[in-house]
Amino acid sequence: PPPPPPPPAPPAAAEAAPAGPLAAAKAAVASVAAPPPPPPPEPEDRWAGPQIVIDPYATGVATSNRPTFGVPATLEQGECWPQMASVLPAGCATVPLPAEFDWQGTTPPRHAMEDTVIYEAHVRGLTQHESSGVGEAARGKFAGVVAKLPYLKELGITALELLPVNEFNEVERYDLVDPQDNTPSAPVRLNFWGYSTLSFMAPMARYASEAHMALYEFKEMVRECHRNGIEVILDVVFNHTGEGNEMGPTVSFRGLDERAYYVMAPAGEHYNYSGCGNTFNCNHPVTREFIRDCLRFWAVECRVDGFRFDLASILTRASERWGEASAFGEGGRFGGDGQCADTGEVGVAPGHPLDCPPLIEAISRDPALAHTKLFAEPWDAGGLYQVGSFPFGYRWSEWNGKFRDDVRRFLLQPAGGGQAGDFASRICGSPDIYQQSGRNATASVNFVTCHDGFGVADLTAFNERRNMANGENNNDGEEHNLGWNCGQEGATQDPEVHKLRARQRRNLIVALLLARGVPMLTMGDEYAHSKQGNNNTYCWDSELNWLRWDEVQADSPRGEDARSLVRFVAGMVAFRKRKDCLRGTNFAGNDGIEWHGINAGEPNWADDSEVLAFRMPDQGGDVYACFNSGGYAIWAGLPQLPSEWRWVMAADTAAESPCDVLCEPTMEGTPMANIGGALLSEEGKVRVSAHSCVVLEAVRPHHANAGANEAYV
């Protein structure tokens, strides 16, 4: 191909930038002209001549034609995702940066892992709804997050985990729900979640007041989070990029060195372990160092506290470079250097899982990242499932999908299959998964919901997904959700169904916050936000994904129900923070947990068991919890306490608010003898209603943690 024209001279500021990847990133180069490669040795190597691509080290992508989220530029017709072109500048450019950022003396909170309570949220979804009370200029942006920090503090959140904030093109698959409706207000589908990164060092321009201010305003958000004692965790998507498969557009990496950045077959096809068209070549030396530079930039320059790695198992797969070394022998275990541990043979097929992936090793041992929290989503779309076996586990915590499934199964599904035992393991911190490898309970990130799938509202209202509006014939999204609609599918006017659903939502929250490990709440679950049965809302910039602040207002039809659940969640988080036994790093079985059933000291581990109770010892007062997943109320016998101690009700998911959570000092004056569903007896038993749970705390009368109005068992 002919050589490209020389790029325009950069401004003096860029010329003066010091050398090195991170220093180069600070120059904020938005785009560069891709140099021509040598003549293609193979017909399948694609090269379309000189073109403009995004510099992977750019810290800003400032385009004049994309000021508004979700509004595509005027586009010419193209063969493949023409909207992708709207994210590219018209030519080479640099973006002037604001003055040196002032952190105003703030420092990262550095919460211990066992003290961490995560809140998974979306920057735009958090405040985009007009009822958020955030000014229009800040709504749906980094500044909007800052406005809601008091709310997160009230919930007791210690870490804000944000869905992708790297530059992505939300209109890459823009389409009208109704092709005949071309009005400005016509509903559209687009990439709302952001799992399609274009620039890994650039904050999303549409999350800032102006594109060139994105990095500055992102830092402002981090600074204010730290000022409020909240850490910032970024959801990073290094498993694939927004360039699609071999037929996709050239936006950045493809135009620089496609085979270095992507795992490719010899004929030029892309391996698709991500389910999104391509697989980032994470263990190639070039790509590996790029990823590490990105993480260092966010951790050092932007003071981010940690990272959640989307489809992290892809990061353990071999690069193409090893596949070219020699043939791959089935069943071989290959280390990070590509040498088979079984045969000594060097060489491994592209995409094969490595025992010692160079990227994971580099991240785990990088001193610049030593202070960060690392969370792996330990599976991928290619079938690799590494819950409990993610490499270098001493440094990583994992999204524990088994916690989600086993808790749902015991609380929401008919009894059977040894569910009580699995549920007990999750409460203990999942020792069956993590103990053998020498890890502790904080290796498990516990969650009952996340952005991907049903929230607690729909998990208790729908047995089947309702995803037709996504345009994929209801074939997308998880089919097996382990939920229960409580007797009626979807919306209902039946007050008994409403009560049962409210109870089950609280049961899920209690299990999450009593279990050893690191709990993660999902944005909106605290007030039972519903997505109307759609469990894959990646494509909706609408009220399906926006937090509905109006639903917790007094004049809302469900205001009292929503507010009471917010209060319940905050109360249970506060209870967890107050009780050391719930936040231990040891597995609970090693700290003296006792198991009980309907009768004290007699747990029922049978397949059809519907009742499980436990007592955790705590120097400040033991904790007792009883879960009844059956359809009938029971009287559960309580373990005995020393004569000077009494059991006090802390929570009862069957009780009406405000008596559902009684562990806050603000509840002084509440007639706690009227506990609603939790009737107390003098015979050392507690009533546990159908499909409910109770939580008790041991106190000494007139002791510091015993109020004047407690009801004793």
UniProtKB/TrEMBL annotation:
<protein>
    <recommendedName>
        <fullName>isoamylase</fullName>
        <ecNumber>3.2.1.68</ecNumber>
    </recommendedName>
</protein>
<dbReference type="InterPro" id="IPR017853">
    <property type="entry name" value="GH"/>
</dbReference>
<dbReference type="Pfam" id="PF00128">
    <property type="entry name" value="Alpha-amylase"/>
</dbReference>
<dbReference type="GO" id="GO:0005975">
    <property type="term" value="P:carbohydrate metabolic process"/>
</dbReference>
<keyword id="KW-0150">Chloroplast</keyword>
<dbReference type="InterPro" id="IPR006047">
    <property type="entry name" value="GH13_cat_dom"/>
</dbReference>
<feature type="domain" description="Glycosyl hydrolase family 13 catalytic">
    <location>
        <begin position="116"/>
        <end position="576"/>
    </location>
</feature>
<feature type="region of interest" description="Disordered">
    <location>
        <begin position="467"/>
        <end position="489"/>
    </location>
</feature>
<dbReference type="InterPro" id="IPR013780">
    <property type="entry name" value="Glyco_hydro_b"/>
</dbReference>
<keyword id="KW-0809">Transit peptide</keyword>
<keyword id="KW-0378">Hydrolase</keyword>
<dbReference type="Pfam" id="PF21156">
    <property type="entry name" value="ISOA1-3_C"/>
</dbReference>
<keyword id="KW-0934">Plastid</keyword>
<feature type="compositionally biased region" description="Low complexity">
    <location>
        <begin position="12"/>
        <end position="33"/>
    </location>
</feature>
<dbReference type="GO" id="GO:0009507">
    <property type="term" value="C:chloroplast"/>
</dbReference>
<dbReference type="GO" id="GO:0019156">
    <property type="term" value="F:isoamylase activity"/>
</dbReference>
<feature type="region of interest" description="Disordered">
    <location>
        <begin position="1"/>
        <end position="48"/>
    </location>
</feature>
<feature type="compositionally biased region" description="Pro residues">
    <location>
        <begin position="1"/>
        <end position="11"/>
    </location>
</feature>
<dbReference type="InterPro" id="IPR048650">
    <property type="entry name" value="ISOA1-3-like_C"/>
</dbReference>
